[in-house]
Amino acid sequence: MSAITLSRSFDASPEQVWAALTDKNQLKQWYFDIPDFAPVPGTVFDFYEGPAREYLHRGKVLAAEPNRRLQHTWMHPSHSKGESVLTWEIAPDGERTKVTLHHEGTENFAGAGPAFSRANYEAGWDALLNIQLRNHLYGIKKYRFEVDINAPAAKVWQLMWDAEGYKRWTAPFSAGSYAEGNFEQGGEVRFLTPDGSGMYSKVLYTKAPQKIILSHIGEIKNGKPLPVDAAAERWTGCLESYTYTENNGVTHLLAEVDIEETHGDYMQQKFPPSMQEVKKMCEE
Questions:
Q1: Which terminus, N or C, of the chain has the lesser number of Cβ atoms within 10 Å?
Q2: What local confidence, expressed as pLDDT, does residue 266 receive?
């Protein structure tokens, strides 16, 4: 089976990309927390995926050429005896830097179950390269906003995404804001202000009333979607997600939003009041 191969060019130097791929502190910000990683051939490292620490990963560094190439094995010893090889290549691309990822041997995990399918690896690497690494290099950070609501998750979900409820809780950002479209998985939604400006987004994942993940694609001006230009390319695909965790009739609402550094202060001013508005309308 052919290797999974993905490429992306960034407005960053090879040195910046190399640091993002090999510095433990930077890896923790956009990739995984790998305490024992070092870009030294022969180094063996372990890490887990996500806060649930469900999947053990193990790798061994095979090659480390600063600013050019990093290669290591990729294994799941708690689920499979199979082994694969992951290679990151870095090369100048005019004034930009091209990053190419190759993952060979994912078929060796076929016996580990559907979670280890080629399609899942492709989706995962696409998100890590085109969103997570991009965001890290461009200073786009994930902000978290949380609130506890004395109402069932189903009620919170219904009121947040109801047309009138959405207008109410987003008013702290812009009075009269509204949404058009389909919030089902795979749907497209337009988030608009009264003058017809805003953005259009894709619904990547929906599991009501537990979680929704939106991917913001481009801007809208005068009611018309704009093409993704060089400026929008720096943030297109940024994620906004809402997680609803209910316990004894109380729902913990967690919003996680990718935000450009220049807009960080604004969002930290506006998002908390909007979360409090969700709480107020759901507890009435």
A1: C
A2: 93
